[in-house]
């Protein structure tokens, strides 16, 4: 028996069985052809069954699939860390690999806490955002702020004593630093776009102010770009606009092929662990960190991103989305938000979206609205007519 995610198994609608997939299309066992409008939880940026990524993985498979990084190393992981160091902005040069976004967030938080421990500081309060989502492991849940996901562990003021949550408002940010500045070890954010918390978008000026306050108060700034990285906001990384001390990447890192993530530290964080004292080492090591197949897929994915001028593709997606959604409204809709390759229609009442998944399927679109949010995060290789089909389907729901 498979235990499916985020679901009451007793009332779960039978999942759709996929037989094959190519480009933006999923082909179901029942003979349906569905455009995946959410890129399998936002990660399949080049579409399915990409010949070049397939080939990169197959080539590596002929050598070996996996060896541990405990005492061993290999070319794909070396090349990927070199590529990331060169490609990422500033001095984000030190790559700690792991198997999922949640774990990479745990590693980032551990880095920040131990960075302080190593220098004899007792700073241990973490600043985070309201409506944040950073993953489903325990510390990621604590820095997260979403009762809709983690209600069973909710009412956790008790458990969250070491975490302070603020809204994305500069005044709240300044107040928090005023009040907790000397106790803070780090400030963790999903920059510009808060995904699972409801596709909430905010202005870069908030991050610029955060950078300044972090510098003034000696606090590490962590960007969780597991969702926003690799172009989703229209920027390659939000870190290109404001430089964090630690950057977390996941989801699209391997083009959606193999679960993998990376926590990238800057020079200062790295130096905080560089010591003759063995207790200053970072004691973490996921079994599958630096998996060779994942690294081969990631290298090819980044090559495709650069070679295919993806930022231009994403600009086009944003343009078409703005054109198609322009002036669109309904009494049921609270707000339509668009940023880069993300569009979200927030409704007033979650009941409004009951039945939309099926409605979309009948129109050849796979969608997975949650709570009050109907959204699309399409693979970047989508054709204009396919994107229009996705957006027409979203609009049609409100005109039925
Ligand atoms: C999905 C997500 C995570 C968790 O990644 P997993 O690979 O599912 O563990 C963490 N942070 C953000 C912002 C995410 O969107």
Blueprint (SSEs and pairs):
Elements: E1 18-22, E2 25-28, E3 33-36, H1 39-42, H2 51-61, H3 75-87, E4 94-98, H4 101-118, E5 125-129, H5 138-143, H6 147-150, E6 163-166, H7 170-180, E7 184-189, E8 193-194, E9 200-201, H8 204-217, E10 220-224, E11 246-249, E12 261-265, H9 267-271, H10 292-307, H11 310-325, E13 333-339, E14 342-347, H12 356-362, E15 365-366, E16 373-376, H13 384-397
Parallel strand pairs: 3-15, 5-6, 5-7, 7-10, 10-11
Antiparallel strand pairs: 1-2, 2-3, 4-12, 8-9, 11-12, 13-14, 14-16
Helix pairs in contact: 2-10, 3-10, 7-8, 11-13
The structure holds pyridoxal-5'-phosphate.
Task: Write up what this structure looks like.
The chain has 400 residues and is α/β, with parallel strands linked by helices. The chain has 2 domains: 18-49 and 309-396, Aspartate Aminotransferase, domain 1, CATH 3.90.1150; 53-307, 3-Layer(aba) Sandwich (Aspartate Aminotransferase, domain 2), CATH 3.40.640.10. It is 35% helix and 18% strand. The protein has helices at 39-42, 51-61, 75-87, 101-118, 138-143, 147-150, 170-180, 204-217, 267-271, 292-307, 310-325, 356-362, 384-397; strands at residues 18-22, 25-28, 33-36, 94-98, 125-129, 163-166, 184-189, 193-194, 200-201, 220-224, 246-249, 261-265, 333-339, 342-347, 365-366, 373-376. Strands 4-12-11-10-7-5-6 form a 7-stranded mixed sheet, with helices on both faces. The radius of gyration is 21 Å and the shape is globular. The two termini are 38 Å apart. The protein binds pyridoxal-5'-phosphate. Residues 100-102, 105, 133-135, 190, 195-196, 224, 226-227, 250-251 line the site of pyridoxal-5'-phosphate.
């Amino acid at each position: 028996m498979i235990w499916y995610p985020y679901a009451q198994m007793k009332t779960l609608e039978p999942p759709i069985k996929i037989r094959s997939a190519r480009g933006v299309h999923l082909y179901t066992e029942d003979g349906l052809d569905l455009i995946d409008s959410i890129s399998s939880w936002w990660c399949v940026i080049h579409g399915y069954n990409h010949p070049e990524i397939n080939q990169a993985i197959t080539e590596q498979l002929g050598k070996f699939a996996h060896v541990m990084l405990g005492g061993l190393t290999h070319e794909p992981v070396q090349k990927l860390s070199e590529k990331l160091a060169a490609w990422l902005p500033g001095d984000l040069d030190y790559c700690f690999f792991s198997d999922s976004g949640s774990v990479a967030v745990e590693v980032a938080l551990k880095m920040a806490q131990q960075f302080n421990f190593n220098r004899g500081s007792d700073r241990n309060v973490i600043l985070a955002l309201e409506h944040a989502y950073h993953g489903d492991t325990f510390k990621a849940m604590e820095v997260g702020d979403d009762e809709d996901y983690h209600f069973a562990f909710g009412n956790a003021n008790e458990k969250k004593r070491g975490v302070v949550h603020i809204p994305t408002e500069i005044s709240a940010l300044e107040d928090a630093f005023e009040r907790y500045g000397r106790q803070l070890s780090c400030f963790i954010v999903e920059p510009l776009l808060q995904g699972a918390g409801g596709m909430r978008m905010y202005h870069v000026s908030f991050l610029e102010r955060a950078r300044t306050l972090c510098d003034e108060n000696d606090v590490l700034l962590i960007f969780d770009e597991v969702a926003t990285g690799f172009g989703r906001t229209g920027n390659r990384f939000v870190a290109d606009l404001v430089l964090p001390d630690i950057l977390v990447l996941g989801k699209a890192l391997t083009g959606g092929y193999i679960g993998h993530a990376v926590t990238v530290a800057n020079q200062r964080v790295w130096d905080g662990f560089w010591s003759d004292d063995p207790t200053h080492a970072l004691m973490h090591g996921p079994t599958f960190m630096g998996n060779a197949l994942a690294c081969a897929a990631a290298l090819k994915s980044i090559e495709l991103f650069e070679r295919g001028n993806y930022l231009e593709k994403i600009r086009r997606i944003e343009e078409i989305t703005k054109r198609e959604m322009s002036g669109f409204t309904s009494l049921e809709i609270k707000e339509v938000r668009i940023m880069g390759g993300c569009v979200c229609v927030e409704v007033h009442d979650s009941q409004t979206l009951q039945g939309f998944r099926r409605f979309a399927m009948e129109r050849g679109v796979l969608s997975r609205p949650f709570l009050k949010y109907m959204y699309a995060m399409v693979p970047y290789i989508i054709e204009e007519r396919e994107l229009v089909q996705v957006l027409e389907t979203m609009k049609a729901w409100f005109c039925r």
